[in-house]
Amino acid sequence: MGAYDIGKIDDVIHGRLRLGVMAYLANAEVADFNELKALLDVTQGNLSVQLRKLEDAKYVDIEKGYLGRKPRTQIRITPAGRKAFAVYLEALGKLIGPRE
Asked: Which is nearest to 88 in space by CA: 61, 56, 57, 63?
C-alpha cells in the first residue's frame, strides 16, 4: 500500500471533535472541560461522550474535583495519547504527501 496505507489512521483520534481535543491538548497539556466546550463550540453531552472515548483508549486522563465550591473537570493528554497523536499525524502526513 505504501503512501496510501490508511491502516495507521487511528479511528479514535480521527473523529472531528476528538481530533480537536487531541490537537489542543498536545500543546496545552491540560484544559478545563468548559474551556474545551467553548473552544470547540460543542454541547456538554457531546464533549462528554467524545472525552469518554479518548479516556477509554487511555489517550487522556480526566480529573474531577472542586475549585473552592465549584466543580472542576480537567483533561490531560497521557504519554500514550501523545504517542498515538504523533503516529496519527505522521500517518496522515504520509497519506497526504508533499504538495507541489
From this structure: 57
Which residue range is the domain that position 55 belongs to? 30-86
Tell me, rounded to whole angstroms, the distance of Cα 60 from its chain centroid. 7
Contact 78, 60 (CB under 8 A): yes
**Residue 22 is assigned to a structural domain of this protein:** no
- Tens digits of per-residue pLDDT, 26-60? 999 899 999 999 999 999 999 999 999 999 999 99
pTM: 0.88
Total tally of structural domains belonging to the chain: 1
Q: Kindly state the percentage of the chain with pLDDT values over 90.
A: 75
Q: Is 10 part of any domain? A: no
Three-state DSSP state, 58: coil
